Amino acid sequence: LALYFHIGEREEKCIIEDIPSDTLVVGNYKVQRWDIHIRDFLESAPGLGMFVTVSSPSGEVLLSKLYGPQAMFSFTSYHTGEHIICFQSNSTRIAVIAGSKLRIHLDIRVGEHFLDESVIQAKDKVNEINVRLEHLIEQIHHVTKEQDYEREREEKFRKTSEETNSNILWWAIAQTLILISVGIWQIKSLRDFFIAKKLV
């Protein structure tokens, strides 16, 4: 996931990521500050930090840390579901200048695995190949886990759809029976009325 978004200097912005359990998530971001004089975003925002907070689906805080204007953060999901990742600058301005805003470039990688670069750069090519293979195997495990998670979601959605269809069918049958009952009652009422008035 790679994107950018705008926030005010004192504003908090959150995104939601649906993540399988036991998955490493790595994020990189860069903050740019709006310059009112040149009417454009500066290349960076020196002196400005970002609070990064990550909450699990159950509300548990997995990460809460202050980083600089450009940084990498990571966390591991313990439960499957929607994780909330929030960003807020550490700006201490009491009155925010009109038009003062930040642009955050964000890149989130789900299922990343850290590689030991010192091993990769070693002269021994066998070790390098082994590390690459281990990395590939870990990626395969992650893809398998993602597929299992998607299958679970699909099964849950299918069950919900079947239950909804079943409820609609029973509701249609109930409506039909009610209409038939009301029709029979109206015919009987009219018949009794005509008999009472001696019209038939």
From TrEMBL:
Its main location: endoplasmic reticulum. It holds the Pfam family EMP24_GP25L. It is found in: Endoplasmic reticulum membrane; Membrane. The keyword Chloroplast does not apply. GO terms for cellular component: endoplasmic reticulum membrane. InterPro entries: Emp24-like, GOLD_dom. Signal peptide: none annotated. The chain crosses the membrane at residues 168-187. It is a single-pass type I membrane protein. Residues 12-110 form the GOLD domain. Keywords: Endoplasmic reticulum, Membrane, Signal, Transmembrane, Transmembrane helix. The keyword Signal applies. Belongs to the EMP24/GP25L family. PANTHER family: TRANSMEMBRANE EMP24 DOMAIN-CONTAINING PROTEIN (PTHR22811). This is TMD11 protein.
